[in-house]
């Protein structure tokens, strides 16, 4: 294994293992920062009358205790609810003579670790999109909304998804360990970006479909494959993944794009701004990925200045650790979708 790979893995592996342990020991905390915020959509059907969609994440059979509250005069019909795709979904009709200028708050949000995405669409074609957080669980509904707000919200969602997506980051780290030069690193990261951008767009727009549970299992298996290729390379059995990691990055990147699309579907895309929201979510994913790669390279540069001597056996630890964690995820995810 190259010094690049050894030092890179030494610095990053402890952080990733700690994050993985945190996600295993505290599943609720880990899931709270997936891209699964609550989603509130109000669409004006007639003047002052809105159809409401309220989607709240569920942990198993438990629904988060969240509820939208308006500061002004409103009247709501009876709610119709159902459970689907790990979320509780409710529909009702809201009558509000003057919704603009009211304050929307999500009751109970301050006691959670999740967020809520709110969107209001008016008959006149204008709209308002806002992200509410535990620190700021309320927001004033302004007179009008700009497309800039949609871009800002979905850009941040994309960044957070990749930075809190430990499996995606572990795959990128394994690819970095497999590369031997800066040129190959650039080509590999670019191939991964292009590939997952393609399937993210196609799946989000409904042009292609893949069942989410098997996709998540194979994403974990892709990490196992790259980790095995690192071991084979170090044993002198250089395969296509070591010779041309960008091919592997592109192939599995298509699969990871379905994973990103599944996360985005949990949030939903605003009608009238679907291309904009999709574009900036993808830009956010790329920005977060570049931040991670840059941080790894920076830490590597710092590590090169440290007088650290690693034993021979330590060269095998990073690849085996990555492969073991990923194999556990694979078995866990297969078990989750195979249980009737």
Summarize the structure.
The protein is an alpha+beta fold and 340 residues long.
Q: How is this fold's topology laid out?
A:
Blueprint: H1 3-25, H2 27-32, E1 38-46, E2 49-59, E3 62-63, E4 67-70, E5 75-76, E6 80-84, E7 87-95, E8 103-107, E9 116-121, E10 127-132, E11 138-140, H3 147-164, H4 166-178, H5 182-204, H6 212-234, H7 240-243, H8 245-267, H9 274-303, H10 317-338
Parallel strand pairs: 1-9
Antiparallel strand pairs: 1-2, 2-3, 2-7, 4-8, 5-7, 6-7, 8-11, 9-10
Tell me what the structure shows:
This protein is of the alpha+beta class. It folds into two domains: 3-32 and 165-338, no CATH class; 39-146, Immunoglobulin-like. 54% of the residues lie in helices and 18% in strands. It has ten helices and eleven strands. The strands form two sheets. Strands 1, 2, 3, 5, 6, 7, 9 and 10 form an eight-stranded mixed beta sheet that branches. It has a three-stranded antiparallel beta sheet with strand order 4-8-11, with no helix packed on it. Strand 2 and strand 3 form a beta hairpin. Helix 3 (147-164) crosses helix 9 (274-303) and helix 4 packs across helix 9. The longest helix is centred in the last third of the chain and has 30 residues, at 274-303. The protein is elongated, with a radius of gyration of 22 Å. The relative contact order is 0.15. Residues 1-9 and 17-35 have low confidence and may be disordered.
């Amino acid at each position: 294994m190259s010094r690049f790979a050894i030092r890179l893995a030494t610095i990053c592996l402890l952080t990733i293992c700690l994050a993985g342990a945190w996600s295993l020991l505290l599943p609720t905390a880990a899931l709270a920062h997936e891209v699964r915020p609550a989603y509130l959509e109000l669409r004006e059907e007639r003047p002052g009358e809105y159809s409401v969609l309220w989607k709240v994440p569920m942990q198993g059979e438990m629904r988060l205790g969240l509820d939208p509250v308006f500061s002004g005069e409103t009247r709501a019909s009876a709610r119709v609810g159902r459970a689907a795709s790990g979320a509780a979904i409710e529909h009702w009709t809201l009558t509000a003579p003057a919704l603009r200028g009211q304050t929307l708050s999500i009751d109970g949000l301050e006691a959670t670790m999740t967020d809520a995405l709110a969107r209001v669409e008016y008959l006149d074609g204008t709209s308002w999109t806002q992200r509410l957080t535990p620190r700021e669980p309320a927001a004033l509904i302004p007179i009008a909304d700009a497309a800039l707000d949609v871009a800002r919200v979905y850009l941040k969602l994309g960044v957070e998804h990749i930075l809190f997506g430990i499996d995606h980051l572990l795959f990128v780290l394994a690819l970095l360990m497999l590369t031997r030069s800066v040129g190959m690193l650039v080509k590999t990261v670019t191939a991964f970006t292009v590939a997952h951008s393609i399937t993210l767009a196609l799946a989000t727009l409904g042009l292609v479909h893949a069942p989410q549970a098997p996709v998540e299992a194979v994403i974990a298996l892709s990490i196992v494959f790259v980790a095995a290729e690192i071991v084979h390379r170090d044993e002198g059995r250089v395969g296509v993944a070591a010779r041309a990691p960008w091919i592997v990055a592109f192939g599995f990147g298509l699969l990871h794009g379905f994973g990103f699309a599944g996360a985005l579907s949990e949030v939903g895309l605003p009608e009238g701004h679907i291309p904009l929201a999709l574009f900036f979510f993808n830009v956010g994913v790329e920005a977060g990925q570049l931040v991670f790669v840059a941080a790894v390279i920076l830490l590597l540069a710092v590590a090169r200045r440290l007088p650290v001597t690693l034993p021979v056996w330590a060269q095998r630890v990073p690849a085996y650790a990555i492969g073991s964690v990923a194999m556990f995820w694979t078995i866990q995810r297969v078990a989750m979708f195979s249980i009737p």
